Amino acid sequence: MKIITISREFGSGGRELGKRLADILGFDYYDREIITAIAEKKGLDENYVENALENHLWQTVPLTYHHSFATPILVHTPPTELIAEQTSILERIAKSGKDCIIVGRNADFLLRKQKPLNLFVCAEMEEKIKRCMDRAEDEHLTYKQIKQKIKRIDRNRAKTRNIISGSKWGHRATYHLIVNTTDWSIKELAPAIAEYANRFFEKNK
Q: pTM value?
């Protein structure tokens, strides 16, 4: 089984790169599917699960169940419980025996026993801001607001990484390949990374 994990700075194009690599290599692709699986298993709101795992592991966060009554039900789910479920889902993916690409979720650390190919995708700030401004979901934000958003999300990812693994997010020693997408079209870059992946797995048979 071949596993590629992709850690990425917000706005660097890591998600698009993962999708394109999956298409080129014929691998299964996992991203928000993992959040959805956790939410369904626990009966939680997907946005809460995503925030708890990526942004707020160091604090207790209230959430609201989807509910048909007028008054929502407020509950608290320990982040550690969500981490455990996330790990369980990642392990089930690994045990399926299918080649796959997993974006985020600290999969490189949680699946380290499977010896995946670990990528870290980054870019210069101006490039990340441009990518975000080109995305429909961020079109209502100003340049300054997008820059603040990028810094906040990346800061939170670094904190979460440290909590889960005790290691530094983005440190070059943690990854097999660091991909700087600055001045690159992801569509043009993906085939080169796919070739690297093929050689990596051939070398590590």
A: 0.85
Q: Are the CB atoms for 131 and 12 separated by under 8 Å?
A: yes
Would you write out the chain's pLDDT as a tens digit for each of its 205 residues? 999 999 999 999 999 999 999 999 999 999 988 989 988 888 888 888 887 777 655 454 443 333 333 333 334 566 678 888 888 999 999 999 999 999 999 999 999 999 999 999 999 999 999 999 888 666 688 999 999 999 999 998 998 888 888 889 999 999 999 999 999 999 999 999 999 999 999 999 8
Cα separation, 94 vs 158, in Å, equals 24
Domain locations along the chain: 3-198
Report whether CATH 3.40.30.10 matches the domain 3-198.
Answer: no
What CA dihedral angle connects 109, 41, 93 and 197, to 10 degrees? Answer: -60
Pairing type for strands 28-30 and 100-103 reads: parallel
> How far is the C-alpha of 155 from the C-alpha of 149, rounded, in Å?
10
